[in-house]
Amino acid sequence: MRSKKSITEAIRIGRNPFIKLIDGLSEEELNYIPAGFNNNIIWNFGHIVVSTQILCYVRGGILPDMSSIKYAEDFKKGSKPTRNISASEIEELKNLALGTIAQLEADYIDGKLSSITPFSTETFGVEMNEIEEVLLMSLSHDTLHYGYALAQKRVLQKSID
Predict the structure, then answer these.
(1) CA-to-CA distance for 117 and 25, rounded, in angstroms?
(2) Is the pLDDT confidence value at 140 over 70?
(3) At what angle do helices 41-53 and 87-109 cross, to 10 degrees?
(4) Confidence at residue 1, expressed as pLDDT on a 0 to 100 scale
(5) Dihedral of CA 86/144/51/39: which sign?
(6) Is the confidence at residue 161, as pLDDT, over 60?
(7) Are 72 and 50 spatial neighbours (Cβ–Cβ below 8 Å)?
(8) What pTM value is reported for the model?
(9) How far apart are alpha carbons 60 and 69 in whole angstroms?
(10) Which long-range contacts (CB under 8 A, 24 or more apart) does 16-25 make?
């Protein structure tokens, strides 16, 4: 049996290349919406940061709503970029990307997430009955949005050349 840390560690490990991608781009590049896309690289990054918290804590019935999740309105499912994200906000999102996973891991180990309210994901229609299922879905979701961000970077680089 895997430890409770292994799945949160996998999420953390998966977020590091995304942070590296962001570190290699300017604020302008991160906020650029390439042709054919309805969002940008920093939106995809911010979206994974808030989505994991929303799925685990709000949809899982631990928190009553998203009001305590920073940037939830900017990056929640169904949102689109409505403003440029500043350099200081980008730094804060990078810190939250890892800090929220550390908190999630602590809450998971402490048993605070042992009993969630079952729900179905809107995107895939998959029933989530246990926190481990939510964490696995979150890991897959992070990877999906990292792929979108890589595609956006390729389009961005072609438009610069």
Answers:
(1) 39
(2) yes
(3) 30
(4) 39
(5) positive
(6) no
(7) yes
(8) 0.94
(9) 14
(10) 17/146, 18/45, 18/48, 18/97, 18/142, 18/146, 18/149, 19/94, 19/97, 19/98, 21/146, 21/149, 21/150, 21/153, 22/90, 22/94, 23/94, 25/153, 25/156
